[in-house]
Amino acid sequence: MIQFFLRYAYSSIICVLCVGLGVGLFFGVIVGLAVALISIVILFTLHLRYFKIFIEWLESPSLDPLPEAKGLWGTIFLKVYKARKKTEKNALKLHEKEQRFRQTLNSLPDGVILVRKHWEIELLNPIAERDFGLNGSEDIGKRLTDVYKDPEFVRYILSGSWEQSMILTPADGRKIELRVFPAGKKYWIVVSRDETEIMRADAMRRDFVANVSHELRTPLTVIKGFLELQGDNPTATDEERLHWKMMTDQAERMGALVDDLLTLSRLERDSAPAVKTEVDPQELLEHAVEDGASLSQGRHCITVTHIASEIILGDIKEMRSAVTNLVTNAVRYTPDGGKINISWTVIDGEGHIDVSDNGVGIAPEDISRVTERFYRSDKSRSRETGGTGLGLAIVKHVLFRHQAKLQIESKLGEGSIFRIVIPGSRISKRKEN
After folding, report:
1. What is the pTM of this model?
2. Which CATH number is correct for 198-269, 3.40.50.720, 2.40.400.10, 1.10.287.130, 1.10.443.10?
3. What torsion, rounded to 10 degrees, do the Cα atoms 389, 394, 395, 397 define?
4. What is the mean pLDDT of the chain?
C-alpha cells in the first residue's frame, strides 16, 4: 500500500513538472514555474482533504459506508476496506474457536490448568477451581505455587520430575491424582482427576480378596490333609488313587493361588519403599534356579551365566519372589529341552537381572499387558502351563517397592528376555572380609 502511494505521488509530481515545463516553453519560465507551483498546491490540498477523510473513516466504529473517491484514494479506501473486513472475519473465527475451546475445557471431567513461564496461571476450568480451591476471575495471572501452597504439591511441581503422578489429599478428604504435561517450550498443563471413588473401590477389592483368600486357607488345609490320608489307603483301587491325585493337584493349585493372592494384597497395601538390607545376588539366583529345576523336573537346562561382584540393597524375601516368578514363568512357557539363562550384571550404574529363554515368546500387542492379574497371552495354554496367573503382577509390585522396573523383549517362537533393572541407589559394592 505505501509503495503504491509513493509511486502514485512520484508520478503525479513528474506530470506536474512536465506540464510546467511545457507551459514554460510557450509562455516563459516564470509562467511555467507558477503553473507548476499552483498545480502542486492544488494536488497537495486535494490529497490533504482525502487524507482527512481517510483518518476520520478509520476512526469510525464501522468502516461502512465506503467513502466516495476516485483514482489513488479510491483504490486506498477499497484496499483498506477489504483488509479490515478480512481481519474482522478472522477475528470472529478466532473468537468462535476460543469460545469452543473454553466450552470444551469447561465440559471436561478433569481439572485443567494452563500455566506459562514461572507457573503463572493462563486459564483454568471449573473442575480445577474445585480441586485446588481457586477462583477463575481472581487467580488468572497469579503463580500457581502462590495460590496453592501445599508443600508436597509445590515440591512436585518445581521438581520437573513428572513421570509419576502425585496424589493430593485436600481438606475434604478426597484423593486427587495430579499430572503435569509440557505444552510447548513456555507452557505446561496441570491435570487433576478425582480418584476418590476409584481408590475406595480398589481398596474394597483388595480387602475383599485378602479376606476371602485368608478364609480359604483353613478349609483348604483340611481338604489337603484328608486327601493325603486317603491317598495312603492301601485298599484303594488304582482308579481311586488317580482321582485322589487329581484332587490333590487341584487343591495344591488352589493353595498356590491363595498364597499368591495374599502376597499380592500385601504388596498393594504396602507401597512404601522396601528396606535396604544386603542381598547376595549369587544366593538369590541359585535359589531361583533350584525352584525352577524343581518345577522343570529335568526337562530344561537352567544355568547362571554371569554374576557381578556388586550386591543388591532390598528385601530378600520379595526379591526372591520376583526372580523365582520370572524363572518359573520361563519354565512354563519353554518347551521341553529348552534353555533358560539367568545373569546379574551392572551396566552404567544400573543392575540388571536377566532371565532369558528360547520358549514360545510373546506377541508385541501382549507385552504391555502380561503384568496384569490373571492375564495370559495364550489363553489355550492356561491349563497346560499351570501357575496362578499372578506371578508377573507380583513381580511388578515388588519392583515398584524397590524403585526398579521390568523390561520385556520377546519374539513369537524365538523366546523372551525378562530384565529387572535396579537403580544405582539400591546397588552396593561387596564388603571385603
Report:
1. 0.58
2. 1.10.287.130
3. 140
4. 81
